[in-house]
């Protein structure tokens, strides 16, 4: 039983303020006061009062019960102090945040599983429900770039023509596209359809038309060409690829191989295609074509991700992620039905598609896709689309911080910036410079079963990729944890030599972030892995971690958890690293750089830190067969730029006499990851990719890179 205080005005106080004229007899001097009584009461910490959503669950109980009289001159100070104290206590404990998230999980979870039980597990039905509920709400707000237009004065407004589709209009367009895909191109419910396009309403319309027909979309990274593109179509079993004319240059050189080797037809979405689409009638596929038998773990969309095997792998994005997780994420970032999310992140990636677009289209909010990212017009586009939320990856925020002031960087309505990879050193700068009240930092992998979230306001939680109160932290600890890695081999978890089991990392001890598979006999229900690649899928599962027979998903990321339940990203483990928001496969880079010159004997690729840049930049260590023959740097650059996605081309190259190894013949990649730049005195030089040429890196270049004057 606890004592709760409630504050009310005394009757004398009300009478005094109502009658300021002096009565006939001189009154006794009295200070206006409040009466406070004491009454025992169980506190209602989950009371749905006005403060619970503002992070002050303690104020509501405090305004109930009284003990003594307090002068009103003290009241404002007491209430303000109580508010500040309550807000601080909430920031430290996150009681109401936990309650808010648990309530959202229950509400969205019940809705999802009820619809799954009815055979409506697909996101399509959530979209249709939103169309019925919010037919006139904006669904897509597109800042379409006007070709050839130049800015007038300091304003960039004239560079864009804002196109808006209401929910009903978007639905009508999707049905027209569905008719075209079905009747002209023969798309059926059993097909996988590749979509290779830049951000625009057309991407979303084709995507949802594929879902309407019961087919599976496969999103292609439009930077891919040649072998990487061909590989994606093969392993994804795509029957048709629809291509944006703006990226057709990466596709046309491989058309013959795409047809003969991948058995995939190619359709360019040109003027003839758009004319046929505009003239098409509506078609809604019957429900039975959308596979009512599907489960929540069945495939909603294929999204390609790089990994240790080299070429991109089609990660299976389940309906649970597409529908339930996207809805819950929208709840976590306070996205309402009058909200607008502006994102210049590419829709071929899960960050934009699953956590940017889908949270909007099942709750009546609008999605505003930027054609491509621009530091110059970012804030203008956010302003023109009336964005309440913007989406980022770490590089985005640093680029914006380093950019010259924009005339629109504070003339916006943005309340939340959300995404992943914002670093602590720019976190506060970003909020203060651009007037952003809240940051919604998350951690997740395209193929991973779980993620973390940190809805950060105020001073606590800066830099964390996830943060929870005690209650939610205790719940999540049953599903995800951190375990130390082997100090001799970071690709392996440390195991007790006597028991053979792992241990949970201590507070602030870095370790690999792992996520539990509840049913080790049916891993696919939690972790769907990669289509047609059992080896890669199984490599992500670690068994017998804490007890015999258990199973956990390995994220491959080094993470630490402190006493305040804040998760912090430390580094990427193993043979991949992050650059330009993409996973770069070291084995793929090693293969292609090694094939660029017949005099190359061995290549070791790692990611290295560069000041003022997020992630790690590619660094290739090369051993030549004949060290007396000068390496052909132009040839290496030309071949690598042609064969690799641009983000995977190594930014730095160093030629060595020997590749250093450990006693058990393993390459010492850690040493190369910590390479001193530009190079140690007396060591061989390091070359960097300046434009399309490798040139020697000197101290001046390195200083310019470190200060942000030169962008990689």
TrEMBL record:
Any one GO molecular-function label of the UniProt entry: long-chain fatty acid-CoA ligase activity
Positions in coiled-coil regions: none
Reactions it catalyzes: a very long-chain fatty acid + ATP + CoA = a very long-chain fatty acyl-CoA + AMP + diphosphate
Topology in the lipid bilayer: Multi-pass membrane protein
Keyword presence, Disulfide bond: no
Domain AMP-binding enzyme C-terminal: 591-666
Stated family: Belongs to the ATP-dependent AMP-binding enzyme family.
Protein name per UniProt: Very long-chain fatty acid transport protein
């Amino acid at each position: 039983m606890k004592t709760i205080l409630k504050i009310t005005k005394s009757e004398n106080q009300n009478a005094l303020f109502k009658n300021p004229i002096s009565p006939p007899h001189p009154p006794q001097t009295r200070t206006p006061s409040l009466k406070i009584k004491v009454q025992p009461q169980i506190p209602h910490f989950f009371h749905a009062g006005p403060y619970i959503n503002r992070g002050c669950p303690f104020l509501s109980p405090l305004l109930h019960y009284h003990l003594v009289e307090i002068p009103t001159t003290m009241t404002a100070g007491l209430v303000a102090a109580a508010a500040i104290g309550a807000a601080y206590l909430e920031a430290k404990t996150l009681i109401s945040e936990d309650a808010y998230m648990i309530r959202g999980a229950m509400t969205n979870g019940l809705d999802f599983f009820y619809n799954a039980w009815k055979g409506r597990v697909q996101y399509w039905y959530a979209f249709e429900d939103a169309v019925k509920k919010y037919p006139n709400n904006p669904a897509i707000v597109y800042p379409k770039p006007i070709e050839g237009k130049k800015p007038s004065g300091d304003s960039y407004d004239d560079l864009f023509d804002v196109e808006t589709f209401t929910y009903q209009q978007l639905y009508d367009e999707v049905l027209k596209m569905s008719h075209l895909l079905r009747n002209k191109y023969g798309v059926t419910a059993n097909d996988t359809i590749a979509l290779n396009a830049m951000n625009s309403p057309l991407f979303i319309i084709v995507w949802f038309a594929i879902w309407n027909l019961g087919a599976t979309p496969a999103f292609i990274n439009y930077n891919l060409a040649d072998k990487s593109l061909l590989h994606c179509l093969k392993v994804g079993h795509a029957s048709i690829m629809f291509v944006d004319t703006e990226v057709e240059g990466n596709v046309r050189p491989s058309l013959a191989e795409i047809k003969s080797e991948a058995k995939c037809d190619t359709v360019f979405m040109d003027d003839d295609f758009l004319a046929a689409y505009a003239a098409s009638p509506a078609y809604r596929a019957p429900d039975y074509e959308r596979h009512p038998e599907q489960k929540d773990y069945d495939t909603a969309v294929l999204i390609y991700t790089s990994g240790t095997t080299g070429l991109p792998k089609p990660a299976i994005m389940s309906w649970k992620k597409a529908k339930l997780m996207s809805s819950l994420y929208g709840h976590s970032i306070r996205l309402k039905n009058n909200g607008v999310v502006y994102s210049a992140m590419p829709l071929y990636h899960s960050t934009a598609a699953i956590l940017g677009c889908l949270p909007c289209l099942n709750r009546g909010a609008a999605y505003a896709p930027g054609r491509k990212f621009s530091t110059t017009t970012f804030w203008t586009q956010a302003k023109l689309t009336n964005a309440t939320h913007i989406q980022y990856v770490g590089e985005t925020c640093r680029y914006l911080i380093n950019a010259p002031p924009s005339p629109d960087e504070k003339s916006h309505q943005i309340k939340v910036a959300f995404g992943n990879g914002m670093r602590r050193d720019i976190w506060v700068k970003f909020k203060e410079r651009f007037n952003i009240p809240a940051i919604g930092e998350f951690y997740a992998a395209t193929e991973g079963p779980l993620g973390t979230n940190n809805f950060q306001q105020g001073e606590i939680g800066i830099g964390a990729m996830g943060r929870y109160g005690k209650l939610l932290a205790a719940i999540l600890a049953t599903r995800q944890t951190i375990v130390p890695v082997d100090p001799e081999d970071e690709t392996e978890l440390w195991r007790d030599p006597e028991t053979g089991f792992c241990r949970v990392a201590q507070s602030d001890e870095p370790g690999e972030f792992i996520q539990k598979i509840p049913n080790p006999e049916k891993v696919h229900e939690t972790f769907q892995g990669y289509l047609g690649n059992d080896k890669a899928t199984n490599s992500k599962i670690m068994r017998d971690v804490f007890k015999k027979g258990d199973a956990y998903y390995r994220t491959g990321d080094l993470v630490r958890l402190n006493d305040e339940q804040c998760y912090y990203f430390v580094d990427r483990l193993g043979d991949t690293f992050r650059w330009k928001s993409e996973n770069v496969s070291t084995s793929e880079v090693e293969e292609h750089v090694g094939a660029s010159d017949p005099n190359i004997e061995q290549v070791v690729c790692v990611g290295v830190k560069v000041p003022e840049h997020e992630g790690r930049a590619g660094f290739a260590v090369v051993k030549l067969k004949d060290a007396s023959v000068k390496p052909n740097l132009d040839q290496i650059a030309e071949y690598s730029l042609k064969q690799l996605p641009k983000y995977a081309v190594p930014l730095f190259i160093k030629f060595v006499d020997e590749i250093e190894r450990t006693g058990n013949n393993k390459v010492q990649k850690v040493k190369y990851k910590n390479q001193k730049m530009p190079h140690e005195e007396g060591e061989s030089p390091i070359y960097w990719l300046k434009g399309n040429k490798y040139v020697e890196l000197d101290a001046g270049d390195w200083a310019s890179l470190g200060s942000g004057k030169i962008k990689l």
